Each structure stands twice: as C-alpha cells, then as structure tokens.
User: Fold GH16 domain-containing protein from Fusarium odoratissimum.
Amino acid sequence: MFWPSRLFCIQLTVLVATVHGSSNDECDCYLTNGTNSAYYSRHSFYDYRNLGDYAGVPSPVQNASRKAGVTSDYFNSDTWDDSWSIQDWSNRGKGVSLSGDATVLMINSPNNVYIEKNDDKDAASDTFLTMRTMRLPGFQSAAEFESVSTYHYVSVRMLARATGSAGACMAIFTYLGGEELAAVQEADIEIMTRDPKNRVQYTNQPSFTEDGDDIPKATRNGTLPKGVEWDDWVVHRLDWTPKRSTWYANGQEVASIEFQTPKDPAQIILNAWSDGGSWSGNMSLNGAAYMHIQWIDIVYNVTKDNEEKRGFDGRRLESDAEQDGGLVRRDDSKGACKVVCSIDEADKAGETNILPKSAASHMLDMRYWTRMIVFGIMLLAYI
Assistant:
C-alpha cells in the first residue's frame, strides 16, 4: 500500500547521488580528485581527434637555415592561435657555441608540429597531433609549442604516447624562466626515449646546480602503473598546487614532490627534442622520435595574457585564496563558486560534471524539485 511513497523517496535519493553532466558555462569552479585535490576557476579542452581535413605528414626540413611555415591551416586558426604558439628558436649560443652541454645544433621548426591520421588498429580517434624530432646531417630538427597565457596553479592532462628512436626527450611542463638557473620555476613530465618504456621522469626544476651537481630531492624516476608503457596511449597528468606537484598516469599517482614547488605564474610548454647532451642523449643519424597527442585537458587558476581576464560574474578575476598552502573554494557569498564541477567524474574527456553537493547545483533545479514535491504531496494524499 505504501510503495508509491517509498518509490518517491527513492527517486529523490537517486537524484541527490547522481553526478550530472554540465557545460563550462554552468560551472563556477572545478574540483580535482586525488591526493593533491584542489579547486580551480577555469577549464579548457583541446581536442585533436577529429581534424581529418588538416591531416598530412610533411617531409622533414633538410636545411638548418631554412625557415618553415606551419603545416596546415589549423595552425593559423583562431582555435590554435588563441591558446598556443609554435616555436622556432635554436640552441645556438654566442659565436659557434651551443647552449649547455649540447653537442648537436638543435632547431625547433613549425614543420615538426602537424595533424596525423590515426592508423592504429581499432583506433579510438580519427587523428592526433604529432610532435617530431629528427636527427639530420649537421643538426637536430625539433618541435615545441607553448601556451599564450600563463597559469597560476594548474591540473593539466594529456592523452599521449611516445615512439621512435632513442636519444629524445618528450615533455609537457610548466615553465617560468630566470636569469640564473636557481631562479627557474618548472614542473616536468619527461619521457626519455633511451629509458625503459615503463619509466618517466617527474621533476620540480632545477634538478642540478650551476656546478653540475644533481639535486636528488627535486626529481623522481617514476614507474608507470599496471604494465603500461609510454608508447601506449597514456593519460599523463600534472597537478601543480602551492605546496607540491603531483603526477598521475591513467589516474594512478606515480610521484609527488614538495621540494622547490613553483610559486609564480608560468606557461605550459610541450616539446620533442634532442641536442646530443647528457640529458637527452644522442640520436643516431636519420633517427626520429614522435609524441602523439589526442587531447589536452586543463583546469587552472589565475591567467595572464594580452587581454585582462575576468571572472564568471564579469569582475576582475582574483587569485584563489590560499590556506595552509592549499587552494580553497572561494566564498559563496561573493557568488564565485556556487556550482562545483569535475572533469575527473565525467564519462568522456573534455566533459564536465556538476558534483552532487555543490551549492546551487543545477542538478538541484528548483523547478524540477517543485514539480516533484507537488506530485509527491498529491500522491501521498491519494493513497
């Protein structure tokens, strides 16, 4: 006799426990999972999986003095230019010298950043973005692009793999340069193609001194989880917060470092390179290595670029508060973070979900609740 009322209560309980899909417009902030969980104010997703109109593998530039253009119109589009900038610098020092302990001239070229058709068996995407580095007679051709904006604390993930010849470094990292080595602020994910395929280097730079001495506390040589190797498609993740940097692979924590955690706003940089030095190693002539990227997903705080950033309510975006070295949710009274979303609880990359206990969550839509309560009262009165 009473099952309709119980069913009504069950319906409400299920609603409260459900995580609902959302768009960025609905979210006031984003909460990450893991041991270094934090709130972030913005979300950006960069998807390279369905760009078949731009796919094509360019021939390598054979001349060290030749300047190359971008490889497709995609890299001239606002979609790209509003977020990323492809680099063309070299490691030439003063005179004929090379920077650091490099033994090979390295030249970054836009020719090495391109969209490629995914020919994997049972491919999960139509295309991916490729970064290529190749050893040619007289020089190493490399690839690098960097964010247009700077970020003040970030959780960045990419679905990527590395493949090819030994002697390359494939990396994604935050970076703020300094006139002296000790002033550099940087948190790295680095895949060294001469290393075992289950090993990845995680570092809060610098990891060495001006005298060349190692700083062991700054770096970890991590092991990928569950038999995964870096030439598999892996979700590599870096969470940079005020107290520490934490790294994950396929959702599993693989390293965490508090020592010399970066403190100031920094760019995000991705590169594929080799210079014959002690870090990357030396690539054999005509060897090549590649980093393939299906997507990049970022939640982040204060940004700075050519235009002043504003909060969701149109006010100037203020720095997220810090408490005991951690990011904290903004005060709801300011209208800054009533709806908390997650990219970790979403079913698909690039999507967000509203967390069930968010203040003023769209999941708890008042119009829906009003209809349900009225219906429930009528149902109870009837029975």
User: Anything to note?
Assistant: The radius of gyration is 24 Å.
